[in-house]
Amino acid sequence: MAQRQNISSGSSRELVLGHSRAVRVGNQVFVAGATAGSADGAVGCTDAAARARKVFSRVETALTEAGAGFTDVVRTRVHQTNIADSGAVGAVHGEIFGEVRSVTGVVDVGALAAEDLPVEAEADALLR
User: Fold this and answer.
1) Nearest-CA neighbor of 34 among 19, 18, 16, 47?
2) What is the DSSP string of the chain?
3) Domain residues of the chain, as ranges?
4) 3-state DSSP call for residue 97?
5) Which of 118, 125, 109 is CA-nearest to residue 55?
6) Against a cut of 0.70, is the pTM above it?
7) In what order do the strands lie in the sheet with 28-34?
8) Could you report the per-residue pLDDT of 4-51, keeping only the tens digit for each?
9) Any bridge partners for residue 120, and if so which?
10) Could you give the 3-state DSSP secondary structure of residue 94?
């Protein structure tokens, strides 16, 4: 059986909710719950592209801690509370994953965990 590695973002919510930012099992890495939150509050509150860059920076940090990178990503999911931001968020996704060509889904949702965090991303990676 493959060993499990839980990866924390350092958020106190992880302990309360009983989750990890990422989990690696064998050659698979799963990242979820990446937002533009920081210790100082939300990043890029009025700029969808800035929010998306922060979100994917947090995804990258989790992937790196798991021994992976963007080139290992096979699937992403983006959840947004304002579908009008899809162009800006999608452009950032394209900058990062344009050559990787992961499968992706973009979902408009009614709400996420916090009002000032309107974009959340997930990524699944497969290490070769």
Assistant:
1) 19
2) -PPEEEE----HHHHHHT--SEEEETTEEEEEEE-S--TTS-SSTT-HHHHHHHHHHHHHHHHHHTT--GGGEEEEEEEES-GGGHHHHHHHHHHHHTTT--EEEEEE-S--SSTT--EEEEEEEE--
3) 4-126
4) helix
5) 118
6) yes
7) 4-7, 22-25, 28-34, 119-126, 73-80, 103-108
8) 999 988 877 778 888 889 999 999 999 998 888 766 667 666 789 999
9) 79
10) helix
Whose tokens are 């000032």? That residue is 116
The string of pLDDT tens digits covering residues 13-26 is 778 888 889 999 99
Instruction: Kindly tell me the number of DSSP H helices and DSSP E strands found in the chain.
Output: 3, 6
Tell me the angle at which helices 86-97 and 48-65 cross, rounded to the nearest 10 degrees.
40
**DSSP character at residue 57:** H
Joined together, the tokens standing for residue 99 give 């050559």
In order of 9, 29, 30, 94, the CA distances from 6 in angstroms are: 10, 10, 10, 28
Contact 45, 118 (CB under 8 A): no
**CATH class entry, domain 4-126:** alpha beta
Q: What would the two tokens of residue 98 be?
A: 């344009």
